[in-house]
Inverse folding.
């Protein structure tokens, strides 16, 4: 077996093992391992940063959503308030107009009634006068008695009740 | 068998490429040296080349680099805890070097330097000595209490303490032999069955299928043995830091 026969090669094997391993160790120690560590660390930091940023953005979005919902709720309340005010105003105006109209109608009705009463009174007066004249003329024609106009009118009023 | 130019163990022969004698010792550049350099270059290509763009969304190579980093970092954290962070670069380099050495060995006509006991034992010895020194620095002479199993009657100590010491001392042997033997056995088996393919003619399809399946298994073993070496190193460090 060459491994145990070529003993004269042992110093060469061990010498070059030490030299090459030492070189490799130095390269790993000085260059490779710090670099890989840096890469891994940087990536971890980047991931952490991204996560933090994502969380911040999510919080911000939630804030915006809350503000939007608040604004929407405010707008809805405002709209309800305006609507109610408009309704109340319209109702008040309608009531006022109704009242005015009622008053006017009542005034018109009262005036009309007054006019009717006047007309009626005039009519009655006219009728009474006419009845007196009729009675005067009838007595003069029928019985030849010339009755005073006032007397005839009184008699006609008493007869009419 | 080793003398046979086409024997299954021939693939483990170390061939001198550049002769470098230093003070009477051969520090030749060999095929083993070349493949160590290839493994190290592969690790650097992935870990440095792959992370060159420092992309936020990693590409393929960068994903491998990050995955390896997080895999070993997780292993160190789970077995040693936060104190293990100091030893992470060493364990990471060990794991990647062994892994790429094992994987490079799966390339046809390549050489598997982790199949040599000299290499695996050198790594295991460094781990063992390092961990022992760490234990003494950390706990002083109190480190010897590591060899006394807790909650055991004093009467049992003369029996148990030698067992504990032997098991402690056998750590570098088991650590190195496990890796070396796995690589040796796997590659030898591949070579033996591959040798059956031309020998059996048409029926060679059967060993060919077996060799294909075995190649997949060997790739798994390449990962597994690198992992085992690294996690045992972690456990030893944990023992040295926390004793029991």
């Amino acid at each position: 077996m060459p491994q145990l026969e070529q003993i004269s090669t042992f110093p060469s094997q061990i010498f070059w093992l030490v030299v090459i391993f030492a070189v490799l160790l130095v390269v790993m120690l000085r260059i490779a391992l710090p670099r890989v560590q840096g890469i891994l660390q940087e990536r971890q930091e980047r991931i952490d940063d991204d996560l933090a940023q994502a969380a911040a953005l999510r919080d911000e979005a939630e804030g915006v959503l809350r503000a939007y919902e608040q604004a929407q709720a405010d707008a809805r309340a405002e709209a309800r308030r305006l609507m109610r005010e408009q309704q109340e105003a319209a109702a008040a105006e309608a009531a006022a107009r109704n009242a005015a109209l009622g008053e006017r109608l009542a005034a018109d009705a009262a005036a009309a009634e007054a006019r009717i009463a006047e007309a009626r009174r005039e009519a009655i007066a006219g009728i009474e006068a006419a009845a007196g004249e009729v009675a005067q003329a009838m007595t003069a024609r029928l019985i030849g008695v010339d009755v005073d106009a006032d007397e005839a009118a009184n008699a006609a009023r008493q007869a009419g009740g | 068998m080793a003398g046979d130019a086409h024997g299954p163990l021939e693939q483990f022969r170390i061939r001198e490429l550049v002769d470098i004698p230093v003070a009477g010792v051969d520090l030749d550049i060999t095929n083993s040296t070349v493949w160590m350099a290839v493994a190290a270059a592969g690790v650097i290509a992935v870990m440095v080349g792959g992370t060159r763009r420092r992309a936020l969304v990693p590409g393929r190579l960068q994903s491998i680099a990050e995955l390896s980093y997080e895999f070993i970092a997780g292993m160190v954290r789970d077995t040693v805890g936060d104190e293990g962070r100091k030893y992470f670069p060493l364990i990471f380099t060990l794991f990647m070097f062994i892994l790429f050495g094992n994987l490079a060995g799966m390339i046809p006509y390549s050489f598997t330097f982790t199949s040599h006991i000299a290499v695996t034992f050198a790594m295991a010895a460094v781990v063992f000595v390092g961990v022992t020194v760490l234990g003494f620095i950390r706990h002083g002479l109190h480190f010897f209490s590591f060899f006394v199993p807790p909650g055991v009657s004093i009467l049992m100590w003369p029996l148990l303490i030698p067992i504990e010491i032997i098991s402690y001392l056998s750590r570098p042997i088991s650590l190195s032999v496990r890796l070396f033997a796995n690589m040796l056995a796997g590659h030898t088996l591949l070579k033996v069955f591959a040798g059956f393919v031309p020998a059996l003619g048409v029926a060679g399809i059967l060993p060919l299928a077996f060799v294909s399946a075995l190649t997949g298994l060997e790739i798994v073993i390449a990962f597994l043995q690198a992992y085992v070496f690294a996690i045992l190193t972690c456990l030893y460090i944990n023992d040295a830091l926390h004793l029991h």
